[in-house]
Amino acid sequence: MSALKRKRGGKGPGGKSKKVKLVENGNEPKTTETEQNKEISVPAPVSMGKWKNKERVLVFSSRGINFRTRHLMQDLRTMMPHTKADTKMDRKDKLFVINEVCEIKNCNKCLFFEAKKKQDLYMWVANVPHGPSAKFLVQNVHTLAELKMTGNCLKGSRPLLSFDPQFDKEPHYALLKELFIQTFSTPQYHPRSQPFVDHVFTFTITDNRIWFRNYQIIEEDASMVEIGPRFVLNLIKIFQGSFGGPTLFENPHFESPNTRRRVIRLATASKLREKQMVKELQKLKRTENKEVVTRDVTDDVFATPAEERPVHIELEAPAAKVVKKNKHKAFKRQRMQKR
């Protein structure tokens, strides 16, 4: 007994698909008109074209990452249906091992997150196995769950990539632009993608850094709302090979996190040292013997010259004044007479 096979979403040569029913004591199938009306046809696959640009991106990390980096990787895998995952790589292994892992996973692009000192996050974007590759310091990471944005896009939809005009002015930015296009853009007719374009990846250059944002297109007039995640990429170096090789470009504006933390510590230590010196000076002032000032310097300020007047000396004593005694008793008598 052999069941009839039919393609997903396809129909028979007659243009009508039939539901097959097998008879218990026979091999001949029987169909009825009522069963044909109740039949539910399988919809056609979404991607009907041929998948030509077979870009596959491996997204994984080293051991020692925190929860925020893990959520960021999960968000990138959700937004990019052409990605693959792998187990965390040991920190003792060399970075050249990633080329072999990509070859095993049949991937030609790689996003590798490397954690150091449990607080610094680095991201490698590489074209495997011939290069080039770029190393970034990832800063200001905010994930989808953390941002709680109002936007929401269809899972598996293809994004638009929007780049700052400065990417076309300098050669190292032009190289990064091509690397981002091949890594973050979902290939057309990918089996896991949807034929809709409803969100935009923006790469903006500000303060010698690359700012990544994700927006959803909500209206036909191209009004957008941010979805997330968001992060900032600070370029360190661009290498000719994959995860190594000759250095093509080195960012002169880059300051390592260790140097930055050292400057902050020195500034804090100098402030504390200055406060301690002020306290010691105050103690010395209290313990010093104070000099007794016999003459006040400010007395000269009030020494104003006065007009000279002739001295008049009285030779005779002044006349004595007559004092009336019991004056209040005389007033009392007058009041009593009036009554």
UniProtKB/TrEMBL annotation:
Could you tell me where this protein is found in the cell? Nucleus, Nucleolus
Q: Where is this region: Disordered?
A: 1-38
Asked whether the keyword Nucleus is assigned, the reply is: yes
Ranges for domain Brix come to 55-244
Which SMART domains would you find in this protein's record? Brix
Gene Ontology annotations of biological process type:
ribosomal large subunit assembly; rRNA processing
InterPro entries cross-referenced by the UniProt entry = Brix, BRX1
Q: Which UniProt keywords apply?
A: Nucleus, Ribosome biogenesis
Q: Which GO terms describe its molecular function?
A: rRNA binding
The UniProt entry's GO CC annotations, sorted and at most eight, read:
nucleolus
UniProt keyword annotation of Transcription present: no
Q: Where is the composition biased (Basic residues)?
A: 1-20
User: What is the similarity comment for this entry?
Assistant: Belongs to the BRX1 family.
Protein name in the entry: Ribosome biogenesis protein BRX1 homolog
Protein species of origin: Salmo trutta (Brown trout)
Q: Upper taxonomic classification of the species?
A: Eukaryota, Metazoa, Chordata, Craniata, Vertebrata
